[in-house]
């Protein structure tokens, strides 16, 4: 089954432009970043923030997320790159969510370098899977303000899964063509199985 | 009457509220406390000809934030109160009853009130609900009859926008069709219909405060499926509709302005004393006051307003302020079929069964049945909470999603005086005021009725051939988040807080528009009745001032 840009737009309709954690995490992230003077777009260059936190640049985020998607998405999907390109346009344009995503990806990349000697995208798929599990992202409960494992779960693993299963094509893999969060109209609920 | 204060606070404040003018409006005719559905409808109805001020404890939410709030509803990192920023010291409370009451799951503070997170079901109470003592032998009669409220029900349905049909043989009489056609039955309704027909049960449509077609300037439902707790499209009614209309007509709405007490003389309220985010205390004077803070905060405000003249709380000569706290009890049975049931395409239900409602008597309460369109787990919800991913996750989702069915229901709880909202003697909120203590009790009649509802629900699922997975019975029931009864209505000043016009017996210029005035709750979702009573209160205020 092929994911499309329309699926990405649909997924963004479920999560908004700025992310659920904006209000709850706003002050914490501002503090961590040292400032928020980029107009809330989260597109400033990579590098350390005022308190020494690193942020990945947008291209690194895209590369890392694509690499993680090959692990957390089912094999039968195609069109992942196109889907994520559009989805991440929205997520990286989303102020505090974008900032926290970039910080979290930077941490994940640091761990990949430290433990496997290479970037996430350069690792074999099995090693990417192992990396995510060794980080603890498989068993952690997502938390936008939590530990590294909880934030990798929130901003990386679960954000990819949310994008997929809140999109019509992704959800249709499960047999639900109008998933929660998708404004898919009011006809499908009355239809029987096809 | 003059209207002068309408232009100062009609703009949403993008800065978080520090720059807004929250000072009192001079020359106010009517002060409404609370910007939920009751307060909004009263304000809208009176704003054309009166200087109206609405004081709201919570914020004015940016409508553009609704999709972000929807993400909170989808993600396990956020609990229900997080969706609309409920909680913290502002919303502190305690529980001292034999049953826990999750108060902050049950309310939203802000412009729009709890309609921001409600399900949007809008049934009229039945004729017998207004005469429980006479017809069922238990509980008090209301001092008004269904016929008194019937024209206001009609108006309320038009104000909120209700999609419904006249196919329910058990519904109370109505003179007009609903403003919009009902939503079509769901696929799973068609499965239930066969089972119900075999059992001799009548299914029918249910009225939704959700647009089945364009209504006014609001969109029809587009199927986000997250009605409860947030509708990003605005197709589900919420009270911001009437707040905005009231403001356009000249009303002033002051948000983040919790009213801490009502200043008063022996027979009238003189001012609502409120605080603002800068810590300042203000007094909003008015000729008339309408309290519309819901079934918990309204009695709390009256208790906080105790004085030498009213040592047990304002408007509390009866001693009933805060007493008779009731909710509707949930009864349900769920299971799984070995075939697709098409759940979670929408977030509302489309069919019900009121067949047993009017069989209520001393032993059994009225109850209704609801055929869910959202039984079982959602794929997104499961995907974000497991410890698997990739093909293993997909396989789990495909196995777990697909065949769920459930029949829910609501059961009336008889009012008991000792089930009540009190002020906690020690704990205080962010303003230093005693927090509400919820002392919730449920009687045997309700528990017996839940078991009866479960029998029917179980029979339906067994007729369907479902494997039953869960039962929400007498031991596992919970509240439907409908706060009722705490300033009950009675013609007798010794037996109630407000009279048949919802005016307090003690104070000539103070009305209460809320489910807190319900003497009994029936088993129908209360908001349509709240709206009808609010419109009736507005008429009474109008005729008085």
Descriptive notes:
The complex is a heterodimer of chains A (194) and B (545). With 194 residues, chain A is an all-alpha fold. Chain A has one domain (5-177). Chain A has helices at 5-15, 21-33, 58-72, 80-91, 96-116, 125-135, 148-165, 168-172; strands at residues 47-48, 54-55. Chain A has a two-stranded antiparallel ribbon. By secondary structure, chain B is an alpha/beta fold. Chain B has two domains: 1-18 and 27-162 and 225-328 and 415-442 and 482-545, FAD/NAD(P)-binding domain (3-Layer(bba) Sandwich), CATH 3.50.50; 167-206 and 329-411 and 443-476, Cholesterol Oxidase, domain 2 (2-Layer Sandwich), CATH 3.30.410. Helices cover 24% and strands 16% of the residues of chain B. Chain B has a six-stranded antiparallel sheet. Chain B has a five-stranded parallel sheet with strand order 7-2-1-11-19, with helices on one face. In chain B, β16 (420-428) and β17 (434-439) form a beta hairpin. In chain B, α1 (37-47) runs parallel beside α7, α1 (37-47) runs parallel beside α12 (527-544) and α5 (146-160) packs across α12 (527-544). At the A-B interface, α1, α2 and α7 of A face α2, α9 and α10 of B.
Give the topology.
The complex is a heterodimer of chains A (194) and B (545).
Chain A lengths: L4 H11 L5 H13 L13 E2 L5 E2 L2 H15 L7 H12 L4 H21 L8 H11 L12 H18 L2 H5 L22
Antiparallel strand pairs in A: 1-2
Helix pairs in contact in A: 1-4, 1-7, 2-5, 3-4, 3-5, 3-6, 3-7, 5-6, 5-7
Chain B lengths: L29 E4 L3 H11 L4 E4 L10 H9 L5 H4 L10 E2 L36 H5 L9 H15 L2 E2 L15 E2 L5 H13 L4 E2 L34 H9 L3 E3 L4 E6 L4 E7 L5 E5 L2 E4 L2 H11 L24 E8 L14 E3 L13 E5 L7 H5 L6 H11 L3 E8 L8 E9 L5 E6 L4 H21 L2 E6 L37 E3 L14 H18 L1
Parallel strand pairs in B: 1-2, 1-11, 2-7, 3-17, 4-5, 11-19
Antiparallel strand pairs in B: 6-13, 8-9, 9-10, 12-15, 12-18, 13-14, 14-15, 16-17
Helix pairs in contact in B: 1-7, 1-12, 5-12, 6-11
């Amino acid at each position: 089954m092929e994911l499309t840009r329309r699926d990405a737009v649909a997924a963004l309709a479920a999560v908004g432009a700025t992310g659920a954690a904006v209000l709850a995490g706003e002050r914490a992230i501002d503090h961590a970043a040292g400032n928020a003077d980029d107009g809330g777009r989260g597109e400033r260059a990579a590098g350390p923030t005022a308190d020494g936190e690193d942020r990945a640049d947008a291209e690194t985020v895209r590369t890392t997320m694509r690499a993680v998607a090959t692990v957390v998405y089912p094999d039968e999907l195609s069109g992942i790159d196109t889907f994520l390109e559009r989805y991440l346009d929205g997520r990286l344009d989303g102020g505090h969510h974008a900032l926290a995503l970039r910080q979290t990806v930077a941490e994940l990349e640091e761990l990949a370098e430290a433990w496997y000697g290479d970037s996430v995208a350069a690792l074999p798929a099995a090693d990417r899977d192992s990396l995510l599990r060794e980080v603890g992202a498989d068993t952690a409960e997502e938390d936008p303000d939590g530990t590294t494992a909880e934030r990798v779960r929130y901003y990386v693993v679960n954000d990819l899964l949310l994008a997929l299963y809140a999109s019509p094509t992704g959800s249709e893999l499960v047999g639900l063509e109008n998933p929660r969060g998708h404004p898919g109209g009011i006809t499908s609920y009355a239809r029987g199985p096809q | 009457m003059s209207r002068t204060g309408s232009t100062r606070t009609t703009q949403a404040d993008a800065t978080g509220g520090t720059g807004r003018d929250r000072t009192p409006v001079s020359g106010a005719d009517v002060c409404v406390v609370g910007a939920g559905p009751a307060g909004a409808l009263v304000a809208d109805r009176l704003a054309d000809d009166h200087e109206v001020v609405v004081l709201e404890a919570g914020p004015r939410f940016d409508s553009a934030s609704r999709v972000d709030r929807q993400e909170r509803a989808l993600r396990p990192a956020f609990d229900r109160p997080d969706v609309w920023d409920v909680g913290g010291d502002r919303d502190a409370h305690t529980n001292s009853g034999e049953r826990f009451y999750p108060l902050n799951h049950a309310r939203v503070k802000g412009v729009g009130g709890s309609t921001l997170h409600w399900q949007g079901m809008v049934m009229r109470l039945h004729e017998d609900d207004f005469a429980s003592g006479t017809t069922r032998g238990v509980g008090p009669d209301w001092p008004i009859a269904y016929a008194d409220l019937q024209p206001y029900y009609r108006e309320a349905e038009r104000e909120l926008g209700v999609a419904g049909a006249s196919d329910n043989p058990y519904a109370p009489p109505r003179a007009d069709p609903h403003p919009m056609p009902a939503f079509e039955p769901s696929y799973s309704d068609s499965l239930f219909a066969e089972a119900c027909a075999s059992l001799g049960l009548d299914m029918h449509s249910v009225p939704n405060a959700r647009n089945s077609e364009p209504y006014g300037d609001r969109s029809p439902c587009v199927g986000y499926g997250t009605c409860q707790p947030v509708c990003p499209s605005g197709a589900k009614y919420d009270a911001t509709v009437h707040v905005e209309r009231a403001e356009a007509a000249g009303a002033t709405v002051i948000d983040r302005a919790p009213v801490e007490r009502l200043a008063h003389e022996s027979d009238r309220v003189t001012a609502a004393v409120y605080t603002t985010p800068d810590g300042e205390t203000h007094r909003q004077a008015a000729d008339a006051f309408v309290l519309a803070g819901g079934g918990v905060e309204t009695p709390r405000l009256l208790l906080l307003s105790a004085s030498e003249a009213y040592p047990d709380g304002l408007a509390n000569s009866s001693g009933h302020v805060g007493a008779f706290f009731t909710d509707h009890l949930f009864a349900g049975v769920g299971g799984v079929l070995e075939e697709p049931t098409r759940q979670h395409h929408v977030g509302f239900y489309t069919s019900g069964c009121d067949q047993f409602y009017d069989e209520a008597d001393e032993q059994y309460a009225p109850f209704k049945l609801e055929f869910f369109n959202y039984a079982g787990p959602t794929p997104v919800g499961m995907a974000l909470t497991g410890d698997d991913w990739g093909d293993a996750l997909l396989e789990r989702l495909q196995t777990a999603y697909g065949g769920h069915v459930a029949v829910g229901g609501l059961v009336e709880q008889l009012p008991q005086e000792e089930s009540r909202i009190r002020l906690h003697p020690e704990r205080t909120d962010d303003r230093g005021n005693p927090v509400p203590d919820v002392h919730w009790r449920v009687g045997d009649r309700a528990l017996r009725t839940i078991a009866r509802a479960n029998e029917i629900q179980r029979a339906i699922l067994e007729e369907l051939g479902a494997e039953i997975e869960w039962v929400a019975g007498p031991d596992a029931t919970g509240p439907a988040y409908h706060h009722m009864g705490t300033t009950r209505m009675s013609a007798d000043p010794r037996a109630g807080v407000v009279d048949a016009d919802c005016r307090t017996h003690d104070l000539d210029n103070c009305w209460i528009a809320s489910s807190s005035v319900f003497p009994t709750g029936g088993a129908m979702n209360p908001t349509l009745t709240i709206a009808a009573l609010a419109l009736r209160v507005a008429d009474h205020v109008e005729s008085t001032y």
